[in-house]
Amino acid sequence: MKHIIPVLALSLITLSTSAQELNTLTAKEKKAGWKLLFNGSNTEGWHTYLQKDASAAWKVQDGALALDQEAKKNGAPGGDLVTNDEYENYELTLEWKISEGGNSGIIFGVHEDPQFKATYLTGPEMQVLDDAKHPDGKYPKHNSGDLYDLKKSEKNAVKPTGEWNKVKILKKDGKLTFWLNGVKTVETTMGSEEWKTLLANSKFKTWKGFGEYAKGHIALQDHGNEVWYRNIKIHVL
């Protein structure tokens, strides 16, 4: 029994250290010019699409941005959360976790204008989904890591629901590359012949403004389900 306390103490120290490392930049990242998009404490730097501030439905929970559906039931307005700033060429990394049967997405190149009532009307999306239990999981190009409704992942790399997934999105001069949990899932170039074909075979083929803005906001989607995002970092290229 005399060895239990030191072991427990060590475990608590490890957990505490891990918690402190969330939503922070390493010395190497700072030197390279990375920036935190989420400070781990509040929604500073973000707002609800077409609104001045972030809805109370988006809360900070255990070091993550969490979409609280109970808050929405109690009157807090929903809506996608978008960055205050716009970006064009960058590397974006983050982690996400989805609720059982849940759906969300990482939307980029969002042009914020009242003529567009939602982020997805202009911004392409990297899908976030419970592939196994959400109805969209049955459709090609609608699974986690896909370029939503445009291009299917090269490999299935998603983790089981309730586990954290790591994302990297590289956007440079229109070229898009997605990684999910270290696995490259999608690669294409916006405006290319391939892109035009993908667009023509998607639900977006007649959507004026979709994918047309090189510079835009980054959004976290409110699709009506609980979802969590953390360690959101960007390196402008």
Describe this structure in words.
Helices cover 16% and strands 31% of the residues. It has 237 residues and is α+β, with helices and mostly antiparallel strands. Strands 1, 3, 4, 6, 9, 10, 11 and 13 form an 8-stranded antiparallel beta sheet that branches. A hairpin with a 2-residue loop joins β3 and β4. The longest helix is centred in the first third of the chain and has 18 residues.
Topology summary:
Blueprint: H1 4-21, H2 27-32, E1 35-36, E2 46-48, E3 58-61, E4 64-67, H3 69-73, E5 81-83, E6 90-98, E7 103-110, E8 125-129, E9 165-172, E10 175-180, E11 183-189, H4 193-200, E12 217-220, E13 227-236
Antiparallel strand pairs: 1-13, 2-5, 3-4, 4-13, 5-12, 6-9, 6-13, 7-8, 7-12, 9-10, 10-11
Order of helices and strands: HHEEEEHEEEEEEEHEE
**Largest β-sheet summary:** 8 strands, antiparallel
What's the alpha carbon Rg, rounded to whole Å? 18 Å
Structural class: alpha+beta
- Approximate shape: globular
Please count the helical segments.
Answer: 4
Give the helix level as a range of percent. Answer: 10-25%
Q: Give the mean pLDDT.
A: 92
Q: How much of the sequence is in beta strands?
A: 25-35%
Strand tally, please?
13
Task: Summarize this entry quickly.
This protein is 16% helix and 31% strand. The chain has four helices and 13 strands.
List keywords for this structure.
alpha+beta, single chain, 13 strands, 237 residues
